[in-house]
Design a protein that fits this description.
The protein contains 15 helices and 22 strands. The chain is an alpha/beta fold. It folds into two domains: about 230 residues, ATPase, nucleotide binding domain (Nucleotidyltransferase, domain 5, 2-Layer Sandwich), CATH 3.30.420; about 220 residues, 2-Layer Sandwich (Nucleotidyltransferase, domain 5), CATH 3.30.420.40. The longest helix is centred in the C-terminal third of the chain and has 21 residues. It is globular. The N and C termini lie far apart (about 60 Å). Its EC number is 2.7.1.-.
Amino acid sequence: MGKARIPVVAIFDVGKTNKKLFLFDERYQIVFERSARFLETEDEDGDPCENLESLRLSVFDSLHEVFRRDEFDIKAINFTSYGASFVYLTDSGRPLTPLYNYLKVYPQDLQDDLHQRYGGVEQFSLDTASPALGSLNSGLQVYRIQQQKLEVFERVKYAVHLPQYLSFLVSGQMYSDMTSIGCHTALWDFQQKDYHQWVRDTGIDQKLAPIVKGDEVFSAAFPGSTYKVGVGLHDSSSALIPYLLNFHEPFILISTGTWCISLNPFNEEGLTKEQLEKDCLFYMTYAGTPVKASRLFAGYVHETQAKRIADHFQVTTARFKHVEIDWHIVNKLKAGKNIPSSLDAFETVDLHDFSDFSEAYHALMVYLVEAQVASTKLIFSQKRIQRIFVDGGFSKNSIYMNLLAQAFENIEIYAASMAQATAIGAALVIHAHWNSLPIPNNIIELRYYRA
């Protein structure tokens, strides 16, 4: 008798740079991990884009590899990936075009024309909760194909977002999910809770696969297989799932990286013009309810300004990693000063004003947190927020966390850490279909910061 096989879920987590496959056991521990990177290729205009064929082969290769292993019993498979990317499929499921990059320059006249027909850019952006971001509004990518490549558009059976394409590879089913439709695609009318009128008027709705909820599963397309296949999720929405399942009192999650995104799943009040101008938008939860979000390019600013400080004081940026907060310095920096809340304010600060690198770095963090507080406050709502969770890079930064706790003194502030939150979200959302244990309540490690 061989030893019993471990029941697992397989999760593909497809980022821009890293493509990962994880197997989680029933306690959500990672029992297997594989990572790949592919060379980008080019679309017909010479713009860089993801290599769809490498991606497809990699999904099948890694699945073959884990199915060959006797120690695992794969019960289900799910997918999570970056949003704003469409795959155009024929009825036999073959991609018709490259996977266009969401940073591809969008024809201004095409965008302006569409906006003008539906009440102007401001109204259009408010209705769709999508700041005008060119190709990042992925619905406009479909519009571009229709307007500029009609012969391709006519052969499209369905246009699906990348997570749903990955799911289709294994299930053979073409569907759309709410988390992908809900992320600044310009497709969804958040007031009407349906596709925006322009999607119907242009007939693009005919090319969008039927919508299912994010916790939906299908059977696999391969004869004799018993595992279930999830519909796939947009990565920012997936990372929120562990929090939604664990905490039911109103909270905000600040997900920190290059972008620091504040997410409030307890705010359904419509976007205002001011919020839109300050880079607020709606995401969707897997169940299709809105999540109000604000974005701040803070990780990037932290990186460039920390480098400026390091160069000035002739130290390496590694010295900043372990700087603990020094309240004397903070109080001195803040004394009688009005710290501006604009993100670029620190760029013009003269580093000769500081006695050493530690003081300069404290000042950078004071400025950054000021901007973060302003960004996060944009998504506060009538419902009183009880907790703010911070995950990602800044959750490990003592100065950032302490200053945040000081700024939000009547809210509990926690640094949250969870290895692979995005992948775990995609596993949790289909928990009932593969896991015989209850959802564990210790997936997220919390560290409390007192004001």
